[in-house]
Design brief:
The structure holds 2 protein chains of 2 kinds. Chain A is an alpha+beta fold. Helices cover about 30% and strands about 40% of the residues of chain A. In chain B, strand 17 (about 440-445), helix 19 (about 460-465) and strand 18 form a beta-alpha-beta unit. Classes of the chains: A alpha+beta, B alpha/beta. The interface of A and B includes residues 18 and 65 of A. The complex binds thiamine diphosphate. The site of thiamine diphosphate has 19 residues of chain B, from helix 17 and helix 20. Thiamine diphosphate (TPP) binds near residues 421, 422 and 480 of chain B.
Chain lengths: ~160, ~575
């Protein structure tokens, strides 16, 4: 099963490699990884999505907790959560196709953030499903490039 | 008053009660070495190879329970310690490694003798630090020592750039450590302890399976008390030998690949297993799906990652093993005193004793005029010392014979590389132990292959008058690998015959140590006694049966009851 782990870490050199090295060294797989500072100085938050059965996930969480620079690990999959990912997608947009692309942009409530002679760059935020759906739809126009952030997630306020 | 980084380091070591460090100098630590003469309470042991330094620090830690410390230069000095760091990591041994580093402005520039040792050792240290700011040095050292010995112990590395060693800073050694992300859990849950006591009372076929955690948490007294009071049989891993008296009738011997019949069959027939500070290593469990299938599994470990890793555990307990055993003893005193609660274990013990008597660890005795049997050498060591010594081992057959044919009675009397299985560990580890206990008899049981991996430390032993005794079970082979080739690879003895070997007697003498050779069984006792009474490091080169094997043996991947007996 896919799990979303939210990991609070000390923001110091090497902390990313400690976390990612733990995954690679033990043969666990990281699907997406996202890191940025929190409001608290010196503390960052990582969101990692990974796939594994319960015993593997339990091991991963315990191993993460064991790292001295890891402050807290929460498996968001176990609670109600909000999950979002952002993607930039560059799609071929020849004359005659543009209107249709813009209609899809509308439906998906994403944005055109850059326009070229024969291409659009779209920005979309949403769940993994929504992002996959957009990719699928855009495929037939010809996707030139995508850049994704990987999931960020939080526990919902009302549990 | 301001001190240099080098002085701060040495002052801090003093605060941590460090009395000896094992090290080797170089440009990146010369500032520290420059200060060492000013700290007469700190003894520095100059090794001949950095691998020796880390194993000595490790051996010192295993023998004393204190933190072992080693000091090496950057680059090659640092990388030479990696095998030893991994060795200590696998066996949860508290050591602090101080490595010199190139000056901070050069870090990342491929400077002379620069290596990213923090990166290299990340997977094999409990934690590591690069100190770039002199104001953080004292705090870092405090944290390093705290981390090394608290919770599940392990090696901690401090990488110290040369310019930081030279900078000046006021010295304040912190009294306390506050690490937000590090809070080992020591106290056992009361309800869980009660549950274990109930299970123990009820069980008909219980077995205590002790691991290295019993030794590192000093739980052996409590464990012994429990087993003796309630008639509970005990088996142990290689790492835990000595945690329970090897001459007690409840002792089953070591379990696993080269374990005893009684221990392995005991585990397989147990209805309750109390795993204390053990981690279900594959050398212990054999084929997992057939391991202890009838038992309710109770597992106590300070490290949550050890629990539920390989086997399903019915009662998981994250706690310090000693505190747990203490609590369990109290609970048992309560519970077992009540009528009709405690099921006697006599029948089970009788069954185990029968197995023990029927299938002891044994070997085919030497034929007349034939080679000395290596097992008999270990038995002779026990006969001469009565167990009153520290044994270290190398890795291979020598290690297994040292485990099988010697009765360890006290914790910290066997020093051996269990997790990583590092050839070359035993001799420097013995030197480390001897540095801690100058008056004890310290014996390295060695193979002729392993001893050549750190033999250069003979110079260190001679120089500091650390009279370690090396007993080489010289079979002319990389014996353990040859045994596997014999049994599972059609006797293809590829690259396991050590036909060109040094004359170990002359080698000992060349270093200023004493050398003895034994080729006849009848000379063995006298020669060993002579070596033990020689106040110098000694090599006793015992020429043994070249094709002797270690039995019992469970072939890799088989169930632990599928044993090849002698
Ligand atoms: C550093 C290292 N290299 C290789 C091995 C693999 N290995 C395990 S046992 C063994 C043979 C050891 O031979 P020896 O020291 O002569 O001891 P014996 O088995 O003959 O007692 C080898 C090569 C190891 N454990 N450690």
């Amino acid at each position: 099963m896919r799990h979303i782990l939210s990991i609070l870490v000390e923001n110091e050199p090497g902390v990313l490699s400690r976390v990612s090295g733990l995954f690679s060294g033990r043969g666990f797989n990281i699907e997406t990884l996202n890191v940025a500072p929190t409001l608290e100085e010196g503390v960052s938050i990582m969101t990692i999505t990974t796939i594994g059965d319960e015993t593997i996930i339990e091991q991963i969480i315990k191993q993460l907790r064991k790292l001295v620079t890891v402050i807290k690990v929460v498996d968001l999959t176990e609670v109600k959560n909000v999950e979002r990912e952002m993607m930039l997608l560059k799609v071929a947009a020849e004359e005659g196709k543009r209107a249709e692309i813009l209609r899809i942009v509308d439906v998906f409530r994403c944005k055109v953030v850059d326009v070229g002679l024969d291409e659009f760059t779209l920005e979309i935020t949403g769940t993994q499903d929504k992002i996959t759906a957009l990719i699928n739809l855009m495929q037939r126009f010809g996707i030139k490039e995508v850049a994704r952030t990987g999931a960020v997630a939080m526990r919902r306020s009302m549990q | 008053m301001e001190l240099t980084g080098a002085q701060i380091l040495l002052e801090s070591l003093g605060r941590e009660g460090v009395d000896v460090i094992f090290g080797f100098p170089g440009g990146a630590v010369i500032d520290i070495y420059h200060q060492i003469p000013n700290y007469p309470n700190l003894k520095h042991v100059l090794v001949r190879h950095e691998q020796g330094a880390i194993h000595m620090a490790d051996g010192y830690a295993r023998a004393t329970g204190k933190v072992g410390v080693c000091l090496v230069t950057s680059g090659p000095g640092a990388t030479n310690t990696v095998t030893g760091i991994a060795t200590a990591y696998m066996d949860s041994i508290p050591v602090v490694i101080i490595t010199g580093q190139v000056p901070t402005p050069l870090i990342g520039n491929d400077a002379f003798q620069e290596v990213d040792i923090v990166g290299i050792t990340r997977p094999c240290t409990k934690h590591n630090f690069l100190v770039k700011d002199i104001t953080k040095l004292a705090k870092t050292i405090k944290e390093a020592f705290f981390l090394a010995q608290s919770g599940r112990p392990g090696p901690v590395l401090i990488d110290l750039p040369k310019d930081v060693q030279q900078q000046l800073c006021a010295f304040n050694y912190p009294k306390k450590v506050a690490l937000r992300g590090y809070n080992p859990h020591y106290d056992p849950n009361v309800k869980q302890v009660r549950k274990v006591a109930e299970l123990l009372c009820k069980a008909k076929h219980p077995v205590i399976y002790a691991g290295g955690g019993v030794i590192s948490s000093s739980a052996s007294k409590e464990l012994t008390k429990l087993a003796q009071a309630y008639g509970l049989p005990v088996t142990a891993t290689l790492m835990a030998l000595g945690c329970f008296p090897g001459d007690d009738p409840r002792w089953l011997g070591m379990l696993g690949m080269h374990g005893t019949y009684a221990a392995n069959h005991g585990m397989s027939n147990a209805d309750l297993i109390l795993a204390v500070g053990a981690r279900f290593d594959d050398r212990v469990t054999g084929k997992l799906s057939e391991f202890a299938t009838k038992a309710t599994m109770v597992h106590i470990d300070i490290d949550p990652t050890s629990i539920q890793k390989n086997v399903h555990v019915d009662v998981p307990i994250v706690a310090d093993c000693r505190l747990f055993m203490e609590a369990l003893n109290k609970e048992m005193a309560d519970l077992a005193g009540q009528k009709d609660v405690f099921v006697p274990k006599d029948k089970w013990l009788a069954q185990l004793s029968e197995w023990k008597a029927k299938h002891p660890v044994k070997y085919k005795p030497a034929t007349k005029g034939g080679f000395i049997k290596p097992q008999s050498v270990v038995e002779m060591l026990y006969k001469i010392t009565k167990g009153d010594c520290i044994i270290s081992t190398e890795v291979g057959q020598n290690q297994m014979w040292a485990a099988q044919f010697f009765n360890y009675k006290k914790p910290r009397t066997l020093l051996t590389s269990g997790g990583l299985g590092t050839m070359g560990f035993g001799f420097p580890a013995a030197i480390g132990a001897q540095a801690a206990y100058p008056d004890k008899l310290v014996i390295d049981v060695a193979g002729d292959g392993s001893i050549q991996m750190c033999i250069q430390e003979l110079a260190t032993a001679v120089c500091y008058n650390l009279p370690v005794k090396i007993v080489i079970l010289n079979n002319g082979y990389l014996g353990m690998v040859r045994q596997w080739q014999e049994l599972f690879y059609e006797k293809n003895y590829c690259s396991t015959c050590l036909d060109i070997a040094p004359d170990f007697v002359k080698l000992a003498e060349a270093y200023g140590a004493a050398g003895f050779r034994v080729t006849q069984a009848k000379e063995l006792e006298a020669t060993l006694k002579q070596a033990f009474s020689t106040p110098k490091p000694c090599i006793v080169d015992v020429i043994v049966d070249p094709e002797e094997n270690v039995y019992p043996m469970v072939p890799a991947g088989k169930s632990i009851t599928e044993m090849i007996l002698v």
